[in-house]
Amino acid sequence: MACEDRFDWFCETVSSDVMPVKLSTRHAADFRASITDLDLGVVRLSAVACSPVLSRRTSAHVRRGDPEHMQLALVTQGAVRISQRGNESVVAGGLVLTDTSRPSEGACTGGQIETIVLQIPRPALALRPDRVDRLLAQGLAADMGPGAILADFLKALLEHGPRCRPEELRGMGSVALDLATAFLALQLGDLGQAPAEARAQETLQRIYRFIENNLGDPGLNPQLIADRHSMSLRGLHALFGDQPLSVAARIRRSRLERAHADLARGELSGQPVQVIAARWGFSSATAFGRAFREAYGITPTEHRALSLFASQHAERRNPPRHARHRTPLRPGARRHIDLAQSRSGASVTAASYGP
Q1: pLDDT averaged over every residue in the chain
Q2: Contact 156, 150 (CB under 8 A)
Q3: Could you tell me the strand order of the sheet in which 104-108 lies?
Q4: Gap between the terminal Cα atoms of the chain
Q5: Quick one: average pLDDT of 208-223?
Q6: What tens digit of pLDDT does each residue of 145-204 get?
C-alpha cells in the first residue's frame, strides 16, 4: 500500500467497523496504524495503535451510524485529550469513558498512541444512565485499586484471548463486563449500584491479584486472605464456590507454575531446587517434590534436566537471529493479517499497515 493511502485505510476502517467519525493527521505521509478486534460475546475488545490523529464525531455522524456503545478506553501509550458533554481531560496511562451516542472530540497530545477499548452495549451496563453520564470524558486512574485490576485483566485478555475457544471468550467477556461495571460503580461512590455478580467478580479479581503478589509468603493461606479482605473464611470459600479451583488449590497451582517456569530457566540452573521452591512459598522440599510430581508427572530435577536439554538442542538447530540472512521489507510495503478465524476457532481480526 502506498504511503499516502495508509491514512485513508485507517479512516475507512474506523468509520465502517467502529463508528462514523472525522479523522485528520499531520502524519499522512508516514502514517502507521494497527487495529485488533476480539469478539467476547456480550462485549468487544479492541486495540488501536496509530500515529497522532485528531478525531471529531458530530451529531451528524451520530445520526449516520451509532452502535449505542459505552466505550471504556485504557490508554497504554502516549496521551489523549478527550472532550464530551462539557467535560475534557488529558489521559495518559489511565481509563476514560465515552458514549458513542453523543458528539465528542479527541486528540493525541504526543507521539504514537496505543489504547485498549472495551465496547459495552448500553443495555448491558447495569448502571443508571444519568449517573454514568457524570463519568464521561473524565480521566479515571488505572495504576492502583480496582482500576489496576481492570487494566491488568484487559491487557491479559488481549494477549491470551486469541488462543481461547469461542465459549471461553464468551465467559471472559462476561467477566470483563462485570469488572467494568463494578469499576464504574465505585467511581460513582456506590458499589451497591452494581449487580451482585459484578461485585463478586471485582472482589474475586482483587483476591487473585493478592495471591499472585504474595506467593512467596509461606503463610499465605485462605484464612490470611479472608482476614486481609475483611470477610469470613466461609464467605471466601463461598466466593470460590463456582470457580474451577478452591482458594487453596489456586495458591498451590500458582506456586507450582512459578517454580515450574524458574526450573526451566537456564540462568537459574545453578540454584538448588529447594531454593527455588522456597522462593515460591514451599517450606518443605519433600512436600514440594510430591506436589510437583502430582501436577506434572515428573520430579523437579527431571523437569529441569529435560528443559535444559531442550533449550540447548533448540539453540543448535536455530542459530541467533543476527546470524541468519534477512531480507528487508521494501519501503512502504503492506503488511496485513486477517485472523477472522484463528486456529482455535476464536473470532479475532487484526490488520496493520506501516513501513
Answers
A1: 84
A2: no
A3: 22-24, 54-57, 104-108, 80-84, 87-91
A4: 10
A5: 91
A6: 889 999 999 999 999 999 998 888 988 998 999 899 989 988 988 656 566 766 787 788
Does residue 99 sit in helix, strand or coil?
strand
pLDDT of the residue at 101:
95
SS3 state at 244: coil
Give CA torsion, residues 223, 227, 232, 237, to 10 deg.
-50
Specify the residue for cell string 492502583: 144
**Whole-number Å distance between alpha carbons of 276 and 198:** 37
Closest CA to 94 of 16, 35, 146: 146
Contacts of 7-12 spanning 24+ positions with Cβ under 8 A:
7/31, 7/33, 9/33, 9/353, 10/35, 10/50, 10/53, 10/353
User: DSSP code of 240?
Assistant: T
Query: Quick count: other Cβ atoms within 10 Å of Cβ 223?
Result: 13
Angle between helices 166-187 and 196-213 (to 10 degrees): 100
CA-CA distances (angstroms) from residue 131 to 124, 149, 188, 209, 306? 15, 23, 7, 29, 57
Phi, psi values for residue 151, rounded to 5°: -60, -45
Of 183, 172, 186, the C-alpha closest to 73 is: 183
Radius of gyration from C-alpha coordinates of the chain: 24
Reference 220, options 231, 238, 203, 207; nearest CA is 207
CB-CB contact of 279 with 262 (8 Å): yes
pLDDT, one tens digit per residue, over 262-300 is 999 989 989 999 999 999 999 999 999 999 999 999 999
Torsion angles phi and psi, residue 109, rounded to 5: -100, 0
Closest by CA position to 100, among listed 76, 80, 125: 125
For residues 345 and 312, what is the distance between their CA atoms, to the nearest angstrom? 34
Report how far residue 230's alpha carbon sits from residue 145's, in angstroms, rounded to the nearest whole number.
Answer: 16
Residue with cell 496521551: 79
Cα–Cα distance for residue pair 161/164, rounded to 1 Å: 5
